[in-house]
Amino acid sequence: xxxxxxxxxxxxxxxxxxxxxxxxxxxxxxxxxxxxxxxxxxxxxxxxxxxxxxxxxxxxxxxxxxxxxxxxxxxxxxxxxxxxxxxxxxxxxxxxxxxxxxxxxxxxxxxxxxxxxxxxxxxxxxxxxxxxxxxxxxxxxxxxxxxxxxxxx
Length: 153
Ligand SMILES: Cc1cc2nc3c(=O)[nH]c(=O)nc-3n(C[C@H](O)[C@H](O)[C@H](O)COP(=O)(O)O)c2cc1C
Description:
binds flavin mononucleotide, Rossmann fold, 8-stranded mixed beta sheet, alpha/beta, 8 strands
């Protein structure tokens, strides 16, 4: 059984997740930090410089992923890797027997995000996609539509 697990700070990843939900109706589980991030974007960007370097794992709300064997994992890129709340998720949950389909949004610098997902989860990785946003606009709409269609195969 498949679910979407995601974190989104500024809404891009969430927007794509709603399209997946619309088309396939998968269960959606949102990764929520216990302590919400500041609304000030620049502050969050600045803070994440050290957080991502230091493998920071903010506390997140509990999620029940036991019944799923495949997870579409949505994350923004934060300093060339997964967003810190997703880092917590990858470290906290036993994902070794699951398959992960990474859905990674970014501003053009993907870095080692997908490799990090593979390494930290120990999961089988398939059909990874990275999508660039320019401001709030998805640059690779066709690439996303094709991937979205392929999820049903
Ligand atoms: C803390 C922080 C760090 C970021 N670091 C990167 C980066 O290293 N490379 C990149 O391409 N975009 C980076 N971005 C841009 C986001 O990855 C991009 O806007 C993403 O689509 C945001 O997804 P969201 O709206 O779901 O949070 C960063 C954004 C934030 C807030």
